[in-house]
Amino acid sequence: MAPARSPLSKTDPLLRPGFVPEDVAFGNRTQTFYRAPYPSEGPVEAIDRSGRRTWEYMYAHFVFCWTEGASTVHVSHGTLAGSKMTLWTDIRIVGRWSGTVLAEFGRSWVAKHLAKFVK
C-alpha cells in the first residue's frame, strides 16, 4: 500500500510565503510539516514618553526598543502598536544607532534565546 500524501503539496500555491516544508520520520512513515516564519514589525523610529528618540522592532513577539545614545535595549513581549510586557531592560547592544542594526540584533537575539529551549 502506498503511503498517504498530505493534501498540501510542497509546491501548493495557497501556502503563505515563507512557509518551509520539513519532512519528519515516524518509524516507517514520513509526514510533511510546514514551519511558519516568525511575525515581525518594523523597525520604526519613534518618540518615547520622555521625548527621546527610539528605534523599535518586533520579531517573534519580542519587542526591542533602543533609545538614541543607549548601549542597552529594552525587551518586551507584545507588538509595536499593542500592549507590552517588560521582560528585560538591560540587554547590551553594539553598533551604530539605526533600525537596521536593531533588526539584525533582534533576529539574532531571538534565535539564540529560543535555542535554549530546544532539546
From TrEMBL:
Superkingdom classification of source: Bacteria
Protein's recorded name: Uncharacterized protein
Organism taxonomic ancestry: Bacteria, Bacillati, Actinomycetota, Actinomycetes, Pseudonocardiales
